């Protein structure tokens, strides 16, 4: 998520522009002035944790890139040199993405994108040492102890168990708040979450995150902001933060819950059910699908900021559930952006959308629109209305004209 484009499209000037931001080295980012002798140590430590990005050719001062880094001398075989290290000096081997920028005045930058591995532990020095990434500038990699080694040996299984534990914990808190507040969401309940596909425990300062998280809010497609920090206070829970809003007014009850976990989970639930009169002048249970699609866009937009803030990187599991939908009338985004209504109510109890998203989804506004368009098509087809991706992209581009990334 550091560059707003795929790694193979990164140019020399893109690196210079990125360095002007003065992004400090962290859990998922490392600068190297020259081609390092122990590159395998950094690559393996990234793969053993959350993955990350190495930029070779950038001198740093106190973890921040210096002004106008010079790059390294361009020569043939730089990409092959990286692959030789990752396949010969690391066990089991790692296969990162590598970009050698087109040279400018015989200088280049080498960008190495290391994915989070599910085939851990990755060892170096003849399979004798295993390192993890710390995020500490003075000691960015540390030797793993026996307990951590056991974790890495069963990394995929442990990570999935941790992922389920985090999701269940945050979900349980939501329904406890619903029960405690005697909240009744009769129909049209939206639940969505995104979390690293294989999360791990992160050393995140929870109080610092609480103080900083409001700065991550985004402008929404509905001309508001997400999350709704202004409407309630931020509460602390184990390994995370949450917001809970329940209001009663002339238009009925409104409920919203958003939770943030330090292992990278973002969870959001909201009441989208509305009562409106039909052509027969009788009240109908309705859900406006445009609001669901817009919420998904805002959700991913905010997660881009949140993931950067806590320095996570890799693939993500996304889950969207529209619950309590039996006999609810969906109000569709119609052809040519006109509203359309299906006279028949939805006859299933729920709609579910599950995907694994790659980190490239968060590269740019366009890549997020592309994912949200896929969701919009799946949602409307799932609820019985024909819709094309071109229509969805057109609608999203129009709605997001004033949204900056």
TrEMBL record:
<feature type="domain" description="Schlafen AlbA-2">
    <location>
        <begin position="26"/>
        <end position="139"/>
    </location>
</feature>
<protein>
    <recommendedName>
        <fullName>Schlafen AlbA-2 domain-containing protein</fullName>
    </recommendedName>
</protein>
<dbReference type="InterPro" id="IPR038461">
    <property type="entry name" value="Schlafen_AlbA_2_dom_sf"/>
</dbReference>
<dbReference type="InterPro" id="IPR007421">
    <property type="entry name" value="Schlafen_AlbA_2_dom"/>
</dbReference>
<dbReference type="Pfam" id="PF04326">
    <property type="entry name" value="SLFN_AlbA_2"/>
</dbReference>
């Amino acid at each position: 998520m550091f560059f707003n484009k795929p790694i193979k499209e990164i140019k020399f000037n893109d690196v210079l522009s990125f360095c002007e931001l003065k992004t400090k080295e962290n859990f998922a980012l490392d600068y190297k002035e020259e081609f390092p002798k122990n590159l395998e140590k950094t690559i393996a430590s990234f793969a053993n944790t959350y993955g990350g990005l190495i930029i070779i050719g950038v001198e740093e001062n106190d973890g921040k890139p210096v002004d106008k880094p010079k790059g390294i001398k361009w020569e043939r075989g730089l990409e092959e040199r990286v692959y030789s290290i990752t396949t010969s000096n690391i066990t089991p081997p790692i296969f990162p993405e590598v970009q050698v920028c087109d040279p400018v005045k015989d200088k280049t930058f080498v960008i190495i994108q290391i994915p989070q591995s599910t085939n851990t532990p990755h060892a170096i020095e003849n399979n004798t040492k295993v390192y993890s990434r710390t995020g500490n500038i003075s000691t960015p990699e540390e030797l793993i102890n026996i307990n951590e080694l056991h974790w890495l040996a069963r990394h995929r299984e442990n990570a999935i168990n941790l992922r389920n534990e985090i999701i269940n914990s945050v979900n349980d808190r939501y329904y406890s708040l619903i029960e405690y507040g005697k909240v009744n969401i009769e129909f049209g309940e939206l639940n969505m979450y995104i979390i690293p596909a294989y999360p791990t425990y992160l050393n995140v300062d929870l109080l610092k995150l609480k103080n900083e998280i409001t700065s991550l809010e985004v402008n929404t497609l509905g001309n508001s902001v997400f999350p709704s920090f202004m409407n309630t206070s931020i509460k602390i829970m184990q390994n995370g933060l949450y917001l809970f809003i329940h209001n009663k007014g002339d238009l009925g009850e409104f409920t919203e819950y958003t939770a943030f976990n330090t292992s990278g989970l973002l969870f959001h639930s909201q009441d989208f059910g509305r009562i409106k009169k039909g052509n027969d002048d009788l009240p109908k249970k309705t859900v406006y699908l445009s609001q669901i699609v817009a919420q998904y866009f805002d959700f991913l937009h905010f997660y881009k900021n949140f993931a950067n803030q806590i320095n996570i990187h890799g693939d993500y599991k996304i889950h969207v559930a529209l619950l309590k939908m039996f006999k609810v009338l969906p109000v569709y985004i119609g052809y040519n952006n006109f509203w359309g209504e299906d006279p028949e109510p939805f006859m299933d109890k729920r709609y579910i959308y599950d995907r694994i998203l790659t980190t490239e989804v968060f590269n740019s506004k366009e890549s997020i629109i592309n994912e949200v368009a896929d969701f919009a098509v799946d949602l409307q087809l799932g609820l019985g209305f024909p819709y094309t991706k071109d229509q969805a992209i057109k609608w999203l581009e129009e709605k997001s004209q004033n949204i900056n990334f």
